[in-house]
Amino acid sequence: MKHVDWTAMTVFLLFFALVTVMGFLASRWRRADDAQHLHEWGLGGRSFGTWITWFLLGGDLYTAYTFIAVPAAVYGTGAAGFFAVPYTIIAYPLVFLFLPRLWSVSRVHGYVTPADFVRGRYGSRGLSVAVALTGILATMPYVALQLVGIQAVLDVLGVGGTGNWFLQDLPLFVAFGVLAAYTYSSGLRAPALIAFVKDALVYIVILVAVIYIPMRLGGYGHIFDAAAHKFTPDPATGKSPGSLVTGPTGQWAYATLAFGSALALFMYPHSVTGVLAAKSRNTVRRNMAILPTYSLMLGLLALLGFMAIAAGVGKGEKKFNAQLAVPQLFADMFPSWFTGVAFAAIGVGALVPAAIMSIAAANLFTRNVYKEFLKPDATPADETRVAKIASLLVKVGALAFVLVMDKQAAINMQLLGGVWILQTAVALVAGLFTRWFHRWALLAGWAVGMVYGTWRAYGVASPATKHFGGSAAKIPVIGEIGYIGLTGFVLNVLVAVVLTLVLRALKAPEGTDETSRADYSAEAGDEAVKQAPQPTLAH
Amino acid sequence: MSSQSPSAGALPAVSPARVLAGLCLLVPIVVVLWVPSYAKTEPRLGGMPFFYWYQLLWVPLSAVFTTSAYLLLRRDEAARKAAAAAGTVAVPAQQDGGEQS
């Protein structure tokens, strides 16, 4: 058992206490008069301007798990782990095309979730609930992984790890209990306010890390030499754990993972929640231009994986957990007090996305399952009450996930979640531009993509796990290794196109479309937006 | 970019500003998806292999392209609004890139 670093621990706890107080005070921040409406609790009153949205989305998309997993992948496999950088480069120009349209139509019709939009556009409860359930399913393991992020930090701090199961996980219980309480009382305002602290901490820590650590390790040249050495194939077996630059066989995987993940990013309910909370269409657009600041941080962070190699983190330990590479690097390199700051950045970095994700999943459940199927005459106050309870259940579920099933299961599920959420992109993105696709064809395409993705991912083994070990497999026809989610997406589109042609020829009922052309370009201040229904009273 | 030439009635769906904005968005996507163009170690920059610094460089560059697309579209939208308001032939007013609201 490691000894506990009390200086680091104290700093860590101080920051934790600070954000807890902020979380509870957030319910009074920018409060509107109709606090009973779901758009107040679940979308912060749709009132966030450019900078708050920037902090909120940055805090939301760049999660604690990302901070652990991306450098861990670079530490373990080299170049292949760096795909997160092209992924976040592609994401913003890509979604720039359709997110403003989603914002506009959602504002005019009071949609709170992506499934609300699908419901309104296609008049299909089946398609809407498919989108909603996919979103919930993909979000749950993602929340669970935020816990894994906190766990990694606590491990290195010396708490947790060994001992009986209750004591071992007690800090996690406390952290999540606190998180659940202020999300319940403050809604989306809590993570929005805490995101300021989180992002400030993250920027400081990463900037210090990428300057200070290379100085101690003898410069970037030396760091990359050490990495090149690690990834030099073993002369006896010809095998290497990774490579410094993607090899000819890895390039399809690199590009398809980047593209597929970029497209999937804004299909996640928590990303959509962050976007819909913006107060205007141009707020959304401006954010697509300024969010890359976070991507730059992520890229620099990825390099920490190489620094961990150069610093000899985990060297000689047979079963070293790569997830601990960066926390361990911080602990080895920084003075204790700054290690505390760095760990606080990761810990608080877990709370912000976990809160937004649970709110997003709760919104989906409330709007697209509860109100749609269980209690169609629910009042706005009912909706808010149900959403608050659902947000608690999501967190309890995530906690159970991590405690009962093992960590590896959460990681596998999250990879699978990415494959799944991408399958909702056809209905959502195509729907923002055209009503050509038939709702039943979209549902069939979604089902084919889900089944294909799950089946292929099941067949991927890795050293850590027999099934669901990764998300790349051979692409049929092309024959290269590529991202399963993207292959599933292509199949999904093909099925949707073919069936739409068939169904149109058969004149199958198309469902009603409650949106009109102008809704997709409405901006705050327009007549249509001023007359928009109270968000939760829509339908 | 100079202002669009006045056309009859509302502006066409495909205006030069929109095409240019689309291209601005396409450039960073194509550049980073073209993996073979940068999968090499040389030339290094401060000890960092090409593969890494080139991709890091494209993070701010992509932001520049996205910002350009935003400014182009905002001007285009203002022009469309003006054209719709006038209801007849309208020469879009030059908007400069000041922050609104």
From TrEMBL, chain A:
GO terms for molecular function: transmembrane transporter activity. GO terms for cellular component: plasma membrane. Residues 516-539 are annotated as: Disordered. Its main location: membrane. PROSITE patterns: NA_SOLUT_SYMP_3. Gene3D superfamilies: Sodium/glucose cotransporter (1.20.1730.10). It is a multi-pass membrane protein. The keyword Transmembrane helix applies. The keyword Transmembrane helix applies. This is Sodium:solute symporter. It comes from Kitasatospora cheerisanensis KCTC 2395.
